[in-house]
C-alpha cells in the first residue's frame, strides 16, 4: 500500500469517508503496523463555521469513555492548519449493513440479542459517566472484525454541564424514526430514557427488518411515536415482544430502565457483561501545537472563561510541552493550576494570597492583574502577573498565570503559594514544577476524570 502523507508516527492512506467538515483516512502506525482511522479537520473551517463546540463535545466525550463496545479515541495531533483525531479502525461495517445483508431483512434472534446486549452495555456505561448519545441508530453502531458492537459518532452527545437547572436536556436532536416522544414534546427530557427508547427502536429493526414507527408525513410519524403506535409481528418470540413493548413505552413512569433490562429473562440468555478497560490517565497525548487556539476561542468577561477541549487535552500529564516554549521570551512564560473550588472562591483566595504577598490586585477585562507594591528589594524590577480562570466543567477550573515582567524567583514563589491555596482535597495535589534551566513552566498532578458534577 502506498502512503503519500505522514503525521507524527502515522502514515495516511486512502480516504475512508468524507463529510462537510472532515475527512476520515486510513492510517498506519509505522512503528507497530497497527491500523487506525484518522479524522482530519481544517482549523480555519472549524472556526469559521462555528462548530468548535460540536468538535469539543465529541472529543471530550470520547476522552471520558473507555469501553470495549465504544469506538476508542487514542490521541489528538495538530499542525498549523489541521486537527487530527486518531480513532480505532473498525472494519466490520455497521448494523444497517448487517440488516440489509440478511436474506429476509431480519437477523436471527440470537444474533440480534448479542448485538443488543453489547449496545445496552455500552450505553449503560456511557450514562454512568454522564454521557448521553442522543443519536443512536444502526448507522452509528459499528461492528469490528469479530462482530462486536462499537458505538460511534458522539457529535450530538450531551455532558452533565449541558443540563439546565431543572436537570433536563432541552435540545431537540436525533433521527426522526429513532427519537423518543419526550424529545419531540420539547419540554425537557432525561438523556438516559431518550437513549433507551432509541435502543428499543434498534432492537425492533434488528429483529424484524423494518422500523416500528414510519410515515412519509412527519406529523403523522410523530403522532405514532407519541402514542407508541406500533405492532410486533407474531413470529417474534414472546420474550422479545414483551421487552420491546416495555422499552417503546411512551409513558416515562412505566418505561423499563437499563438495570431492569439486564435482569430481563430474554435479555439474559447468553449474556456476558463487558470487561471494562483499566483507567489510563495518559491516553491522550498532544504531539503538535494548536496554533492561535486562544485567539479563536477565548472570550473576555467577568466570570470564568469556558476552556476548549484542545487546551484541556494539552494539559495531560503525559505531555512534555518544552518544545513549545524554547523559542519564546522568558517573560511570556505561563503556569496552569487545576482547582475544584468554585470560580468565586478561586478569585477570593487568589486576591487574599497575593495581597498577603505584597501585591496590588486589579480586575481588568475578566482577569486579575497583579503588581508588586515594592520592587526596590528586587534587582529585576517589579513583578507583574496576569491571572485568568477557565471553566472546564462547573466543578473543575484551571487558573492560568502569565508573567508579564519582573523577578523570576518571586514569580516561582507566587505560583507555589497559589498552587497550595487553590488545590482542593478532591484533586490529586497538582504542583507547579520548573525545569532545571528555569525555561519551562508546567503543572504536575493527574487530571481527574470529569464525572457528574
Topology summary:
Blueprint: E1 5-7, E2 10-18, E3 22-29, E4 35-42, H1 43-48, H2 52-64, E5 73-78, E6 82-88, H3 95-101, H4 109-128, E7 141-143, E8 149-151, H5 181-185, H6 191-208, H7 218-227, H8 238-247, H9 258-262, H10 265-268, H11 293-297, E9 305-306, H12 309-314, H13 322-325, E10 334-339, H14 343-356, E11 359-364, E12 367-372, E13 384-393, E14 396-405, H15 408-422, E15 431-434, E16 441-444
Strand order of the largest sheet: 1-2-3-4-6-5
What structural category arises from helix and sheet content?
alpha+beta
Strand composition percent: 15-25%
Helix content: 25-40%
Second rung of CATH, namely the architecture of the largest domain = Orthogonal Bundle
**Which CATH first-tier class of the largest domain would you pick?**
Mainly Alpha
Q: Main β-sheet, in a few words?
A: 6 strands, antiparallel
Count of spatially separate domains: 3
Shape category? elongated
Identify the notable features of this structure and list them briefly.
TATA-Binding Protein; single chain; 453 residues; 15 helices; 31% helix; 3 domains; alpha+beta; Transferase(Phosphotransferase), domain 1; 6-stranded mixed sheet; 6-stranded antiparallel sheet
How does this model look, in words?
This protein has 453 residues and is of the alpha+beta class. The chain has helices spanning 43-48, 52-64, 95-101, 109-128, 181-185, 191-208, 218-227, 238-247, 258-262, 265-268, 293-297, 309-314, 322-325, 343-356, 408-422; strands spanning 5-7, 10-18, 22-29, 35-42, 73-78, 82-88, 141-143, 149-151, 305-306, 334-339, 359-364, 367-372, 384-393, 396-405, 431-434, 441-444. It has three domains: 5-88, Phosphorylase Kinase, domain 1; 95-268, Orthogonal Bundle (Transferase(Phosphotransferase), domain 1), CATH 1.10.510; 293-444, 2-Layer Sandwich (TATA-Binding Protein), CATH 3.30.310. It has 15 helices and 16 strands. The strands form four sheets. It has a six-stranded antiparallel beta sheet with strand order 1-2-3-4-6-5. Strands 9, 10, 11, 12, 13 and 14 form a six-stranded mixed beta sheet that branches. A two-stranded antiparallel sheet has the order 7-8. Helix 4 (109-128) packs antiparallel against helix 6 (191-208). The longest helix has 20 residues, at 109-128. It starts with a strand and ends in a 9-residue tail after the last strand. Residues 281-303, 317-332 and 425-453 have low confidence and may be disordered.
Amino acid at each position: 500500500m502506498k502512503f503519500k502523507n505522514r503525521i507524527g508516527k502515522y502514515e495516511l492512506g486512502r480516504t475512508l469517508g468524507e463529510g462537510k467538515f472532515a475527512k476520515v483516512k486510513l492510517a498506519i502506525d509505522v512503528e507497530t503496523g497497527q491500523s487506525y482511522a484518522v479524522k482530519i479537520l481544517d482549523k480555519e473551517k472549524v472556526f469559521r463555521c462555528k462548530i468548535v463546540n460540536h468538535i469539543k463535545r465529541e472529543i471530550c466525550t470520547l476522552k471520558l469513555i473507555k469501553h470495549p463496545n465504544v469506538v476508542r479515541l487514542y490521541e489528538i495531533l495538530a499542525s498549523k492548519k489541521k486537527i487530527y483525531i486518531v480513532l480505532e479502525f473498525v472494519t466490520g461495517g455497521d448494523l444497517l449493513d448487517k440488516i440489509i445483508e440478511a436474506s429476509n431483512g431480519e437477523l436471527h434472534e440470537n444474533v440480534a440479542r448479542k448485538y443488543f446486549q453489547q449496545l445496552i452495555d455500552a450505553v449503560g456505561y456511557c450514562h454512568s459517566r454522564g454521557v448521553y448519545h442522543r443519536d443512536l441508530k444502526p448507522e452509528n453502531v459499528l461492528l469490528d472484525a469479530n462482530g462486536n458492537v462499537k458505538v460511534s459518532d458522539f457529535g450530538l452527545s450531551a455532558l452533565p454541564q449541558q443540563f439546565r437547572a431543572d436537570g433536563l436536556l432541552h435540545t431537540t436532536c436525533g433521527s426522526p424514526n429513532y427519537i423518543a416522544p419526550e424529545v419531540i414534546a420539547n419540554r425537557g427530557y432525561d438523556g438516559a430514557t431518550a437513549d433507551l427508547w432509541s435502543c428499543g427502536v434498534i432492537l425492533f429493526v434488528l429483529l424484524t427488518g423494518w422500523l416500528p414507527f414510519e410515515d412519509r408525513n412527519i406529523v403523522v410519524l410523530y403522532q405514532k411515536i407519541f402514542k407508541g403506535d406500533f405492532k410486533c409481528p407474531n413470529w417474534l418470540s414472546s420474550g422479545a415482544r414483551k421487552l420491546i413493548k416495555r422499552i417503546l413505552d411512551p409513558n416515562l413512569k412505566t418505561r423499563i430502565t437499563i438495570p431492569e433490562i439486564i435482569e430481563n429473562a430474554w435479555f439474559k440468555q447468553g449474556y456476558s457483561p463487558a470487561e471494562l478497560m483499566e483507567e489510563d490517565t495518559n491516553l491522550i497525548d498532544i504531539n503538535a501545537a494548536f496554533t492561535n487556539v486562544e485567539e479563536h476561542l477565548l472570550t473576555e468577561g467577568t466570570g470564568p472563561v469556558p476552556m476548549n477541549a484542545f487546551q484541556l487535552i494539552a494539559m495531560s500529564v503525559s505531555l512534555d510541552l518544552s518544545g513549545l516554549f524554547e523559542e519564546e521570551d522568558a517573560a511570556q512564560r505561563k503556569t496552569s493550576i487545576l482547582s475544584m473550588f468554585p470560580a468565586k472562591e478561586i478569585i477570593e483566595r487568589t486576591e487574599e494570597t497575593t495581597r498577603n504577598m505584597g501585591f496590588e490586585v486589579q480586575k481588568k477585562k475578566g482577569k486579575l492583574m497583579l503588581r508588586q507594591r515594592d520592587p526596590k528589594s528586587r534587582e529585576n524590577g517589579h513583578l507583574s502577573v496576569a491571572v485568568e480562570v477557565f471553566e472546564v466543567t462547573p466543578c473543575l477550573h484551571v487558573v492560568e498565570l502569565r508573567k508579564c515582567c519582573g523577578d523570576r524567583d518571586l514569580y516561582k514563589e507566587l505560583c507555589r503559594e497559589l498552587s497550595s491555596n487553590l488545590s482542593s482535597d478532591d484533586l490529586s495535589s497538582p504542583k507547579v514544577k520548573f525545569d532545571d534551566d528555569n525555561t519551562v513552566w508546567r503543572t504536575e498532578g493527574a487530571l481527574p476524570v470529569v464525572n457528574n458534577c
